[in-house]
Amino acid sequence: MRRRKEIAGTLFLAFVALIASTTLSRDRSRMPTASGAPSTPDEGALLSPNAPAPGPAEPSRDISVTELPVADSSISVAKTKRFQEAKKCAGVVRAVESMRTQRISCDSETRPDVLASCKKQIASFDEKLERAEAMLSECPPADVGDSESRYWRSVVEAAEAGDADAALCYIKSDVSLQRPWSSEERARYGILAPTYIDRAFSAGDWRIAEIFSMGPRGIPSEGLLRTQTGGERTTQYRMNRLLRLGAVGQYAMLLDLDFASPDETLTRDERLAAEAWAKDMYARYFSSSPKLDSPPVSCAVIDKDIWPYPF
Known about the structure:
This protein has a domain at 73-286. 59% of the residues lie in helices and 0% in strands. The chain has helices spanning 2-29, 73-107, 112-123, 126-136, 144-160, 164-172, 183-202, 206-212, 233-246, 249-258, 268-286. Helix 2 (73-107) packs antiparallel against helix 5 and helix 6 (164-172) crosses helix 7. The radius of gyration is 24 Å and the shape is globular.
């Protein structure tokens, strides 16, 4: 009997050690690398735009999306409100600063032909600048740097509280902080962004496909999105095909034209793999999402009514 107890005790300790080792290994695999990205993919990796495309015969599998703690509902509502207000004010400050800078530039211009063109352009600013300055009076006093910092803090807080719109803004990170990103911000983005990306795909949110459909020039130059995608042509085509499955009318035609050039560099195998990925994702997550008759808009900080330049 004593011998049996000793054996049972040994087996129990071995089992506990195995569980601890497995847990530690899994936790380490989810830690960010120096680049800010997880060192190895987790169960949600299939949702990544850069994940290998599943073969047509592969069965679908459930995706485990990392859950963040959800804040108290009243706190979440307050954070969402702060995010919306800070986003609006950031857009207003950007517009006002852009128009004022353009006016200063015109005033210093000495070439007659350029000056005439410049003055003609800023003459069209008057109404928009007046409207923007009226909106600015409703925002906390701030220069561009302060406004962008306040906006980014609100994005981080609202996204962590579960706001889907803020999470997309976090992923896109279209913000100009007037300073370099800190190592802590980069590391945190490397952990949170993949989770928010997975959530958006698993929710069938077309806006995440729009974000990853951007080419290198469309990705915000000062943001952190480049740690998740470089605007690779294969990723663009995956998103194009996914969006096309939900598109109707003229928008569907425009999506088809995007990759219709005879100079297109994608190979046949790359196209087939991207199309398989898109069909799989659509069937599992987007088939019940609303149809698209125009491009989905993600995290539009700029208000078109006050922005001085064409979109």
